Known about the structure:
By secondary structure, the chain is mostly helical. 63% of the residues lie in helices and 0% in strands. It has 5 helices and no strands. It has helices at residues 2-8, 15-23, 30-57, 72-84, 88-92. Helix 1 crosses helix 2 (15-23), helix 2 packs antiparallel against helix 3 (30-57) and helix 3 (30-57) crosses helix 4. It starts with a helix and ends in a 7-residue tail after the last helix.
Amino acid sequence: xxxxxxxxxxxxxxxxxxxxxxxxxxxxxxxxxxxxxxxxxxxxxxxxxxxxxxxxxxxxxxxxxxxxxxxxxxxxxxxxxxxxxxxxxxxxxxxxxxx
Length: 99
């Protein structure tokens, strides 16, 4: 999202805002951006919930999530979000053409 913001002169600071603004500058389907925004929300939300559990258990904070301890709906949403990650390369295009 940061690369897209720099390329397109977008001043937004958060990842969802950057992706939303970049959608207007792209020929790619808007659904791609919408899915990445939702995936970002799911991933961060899952990590934050895990960190709350870890705090209660006295475990040092990290970005690790215990998928086996998630309920089935959350696990499915996390799985969906992780499947969106490879589409980031569609947004950035050929890295050689940037140089």
